[in-house]
Amino acid sequence: MNNGGSKIIGATFSTDGSIVGVQLQHGFSMFQTSPFRLVARDDLNTVNSACIYKKSALCILSGAITDDSAPDTTVFIGNITEQGDWLHRLQIPEPVTELALTDASLLVRTAHSLYIFDIHAPSSPIHVSRPFLQCSPLAVQIPSRTHTALPQYIAYALSETVGRVLVFDPTPPRPHGVIVLEAHKSPVQTIALGWSGQVALMATASQTGTIVRVFALPEGVRVAVCRRGSASCAILSMAFSPTGSHLCAVSARGTLHIFEIPSVSARNADSKVGRTIGEWMQERRDVCGVTLPSLCVGKEGTSVRWADPHTVCVVSTGGQLVIYQFDPETSSLALMGIKNLA
Questions:
Q1: Residue 57, pLDDT above cutoff 70
Q2: Which of 266, 276, 340, 261 is nearest to 306 (CA)?
Q3: What sign results for the dihedral spanned by CA atoms 86, 89, 95, 100?
Q4: Which Pfam families has this protein been placed in (predicted)?
Q5: Nearest CA-CA partner of 181 in 150, 139, 145
Q6: What are the distances in angstroms from CA 172 to CA 96, 103, 156, 169?
Q7: Which of 8, 164, 211, 256 has its CA 20 to 30 Å from the CA of residue 338?
């Protein structure tokens, strides 16, 4: 989609889901998701990757931001409402392919490496992971809205042939708490991280996309198995609700599914007996599902996020933000609007 000759390259949600950023061929825009409104717009040069820190206008961008001839190896950190005033410029040895944030860490992904910076003092990386699979899905922990001192996990697939996932806490001064989980038999396609109280949750989907498994971290206990369907279909994006009570998933067929996740406490997450092999191991069907507008179907860049406990937002690289209202009492989704982000 074009707007005055400016093509949409991609879109990204802020760490808390309240802001969506739109990467344009010539510019970058930020919109509040609920209620929907324009927050900021800047006529930058090409923005290839972006991430946004919580509700603020603090952005981390990569691309030919200031010069069309500049290589895509510079990461810019700053407030786009303050024209030309970048707080930091980080030089990366390789072209940047993806950016991500936790509360304390900035993750810079390249074709073969993952660079981790302290977001509050990003002069040099505190850790570099090599080799890093070019096609590996990457997920970061969404901030807990009730507990600020909890771990901030990141997770990514370790193999192109089996469903092995690496999880660790990148919080400075150095990464720690490393665990490896055998999530699926086939390669992992999509990962999501969230919270249930003070227990971290991780959802994984393989390339077949029929089953989503949910684990409690750091123990790696499987707490739920969710069935999307019986036919193979890639899951493009997943997200936990702010309380961890529900998980939403978007498929390549253009369907949005909501699954109910059982409550997890720190006590029962420590145990691999009882409900973990009983009620929690029963396959869960979605409590509701809808078909997305055709413009979102099959788009690789389609992403889903909860803006709040009752608002689910789906954004596509075609430039549409689709907003649904979720009612947990009736397990229903109501279309609230389709916004053009171009």
A1: no
A2: 261
A3: negative
A4: PROPPIN
A5: 139
A6: 22, 11, 19, 9
A7: 211
What is the C-alpha separation between 322 and 256, in angstroms, rounded? 11
Q: What is the DSSP letter of 269?
A: H
| pTM (two decimals) | 0.87
Chain mean position to CA 311? 16
Residue 104 near residue 118 (C-beta atoms within 8 A): yes
Kindly indicate the confidence band of residue 257, based on its pLDDT and cuts at 50, 70 and 90. very high
46 and 26 Cβ atoms separated by less than 8 Å:
yes
Instruction: Specify the pLDDT at position 184.
Output: 94
CA–CA separation, 84 vs 167, rounded Å? 37
Tell me the pLDDT of the chain averaged across its residues.
Answer: 83
| Side-by-side strand order, sheet with 127-129 | 98-101, 105-109, 114-118, 127-129
Confidence of residue 279 (pLDDT cuts 50, 70, 90): very low
Sorted by where each starts, the structural domains of the chain and their CATH numbers stand as 1-132 (2.130.10.10), 135-342 (2.130.10.10)
Contact call for residues 314 and 257 (beta carbons, < 8 A): no
* Residue 236 near residue 299 (C-beta atoms within 8 A): yes
Q: How far, in whole angstroms, is CA 219 from its chain's centroid?
A: 22
User: CA triplet 162, 166, 167: central angle to 5 degrees?
Assistant: 145
Tell me, what's the pLDDT at 322? 93
pLDDT of residue 106: 92
User: What does the block give as tokens for 166?
Assistant: 């690496």
Under DSSP, the state recorded for 302 is -
- For 185-198, b where at least 16 C-beta lie within 10 A, e where not — what string? eebbbbbbbbbbbe
Measured CA to CA, the distance from residue 53 to residue 109 in angstroms comes to 17
Beta carbons within 10 angstroms of residue 156's beta carbon? 21
